[in-house]
Amino acid sequence: MLKKDLINYQNETHEDSSCPKCKGDLEFNGGSNMETENWHCNDCNASYSVQVEMVRFWDTLVEVE
Ligand SMILES: [Zn+2]
User: Fold this and answer.
1) Nearest Cα residue to 29 out of 49, 11, 54
2) 10, 16, 34, 38 - which has most CB atoms within 10 Å?
């Protein structure tokens, strides 16, 4: 599998925020605390919590006054 295809595959399987119950679109519902986010499905009125991973780009580190 080419890297480009792998990225497309990952986008389709992991970045797709669709409702597991009805496959409707999930809407970001806030509640981000750097560990989890809340998402809501307007189609079947289900609420979800999903774990997120924060990435620190340490090579951008700059001292602030
Ligand atoms: Zn739904």
Assistant:
1) 49
2) 38
Looking up tokens 């669709």 gives: 18
Q: What is the pTM of this model?
A: 0.60
Q: Is 3 left (phi over 0), alpha (psi -120 to 50) or beta?
A: alpha
Please give the DSSP secondary-structure letter assigned to residue 24: P
Q: What Cα–Cα distance (Å) separates residue 59 from each residue in 37, 40, 53, 55, 56?
A: 26, 35, 18, 12, 9
Residue-wise pLDDT for 31-64, tens only, equals 778 889 999 999 999 999 999 888 899 999 999 9
Cα 37 to ligand 1 centroid, rounded to whole Å: 17
